[in-house]
Amino acid sequence: VFSPDGTRAAGTLVRGTVEGITAGGAHAVVWPFDTKGLSFGKPVSVFDLGAEDACIGFPSFLPTGNGLLLQKQLSACSTGTYNTYLGTEQVRSEIWWTDVTTGAQARLDALNGRQPDGTSYLPRGTSGTDHDDDTTLNYEPTVAPVLAGGYAWVVFTSRRMYGNVATASPFTSDPRSYDHTKIVTPKKLWVAAIDVSGKPGSDP
Question: What is the pTM of this model?
C-alpha cells in the first residue's frame, strides 16, 4: 500500500529475507519511493513481532504518511495468508498502529473495544456464543487518505456483537451456512476517528 503522497510504500514480510530484514514471524516494512524516478529505496522494518505466534497484515497509512495501521492476527501465519475465518480456525485479531519514523507501536484500545485500563467496554455474550472477548474480533483497517473534521477516519471489519440484535456467533457470516431471515450476522463495518497529533506509542 502507498502513502497518500506516494513517497512511501508499506507491506508485510512473513517469510524469507529482504535487504537484511529476516522474517521472525511477520514484519511491517516501509520502503521510501522516488515518485520521479519510480524506484524503491531500502526497506525499514517498522513493526516486528519477533515470533510466529501472531501475524501482521493489511497495512494502511494515515493521511500524514507518518503512521501505519495494521491488523495483528493473534495466530501464526501458517498459510502465509491473512483471514478473519480460516476453515475451522476462528482467527482473532486486533488493530494496532506504528510510527514509521520511530517504530513506536501501540494497540488501538478505544477502537478495539478497551478502556484506558485495558478492560473491555463491550458487552459479553452468553455462554457458547464465542463473544467472550469481542476486543479481539477486529480486522482489515482501511484509512481514508484525507483528514476530515480534523481527524483521520478508519473503516474496519468487526465481528463484535451489535446491541441485542446481532448476537450470533462472531463467525456466523457465510449466508450459505445459516438462515439469514432469522439470524443477524455480527460481521459488520465500523468506523473510528484517529487523532493524527497523537504521540507515538499512545492510543490516538
Answer: 0.90
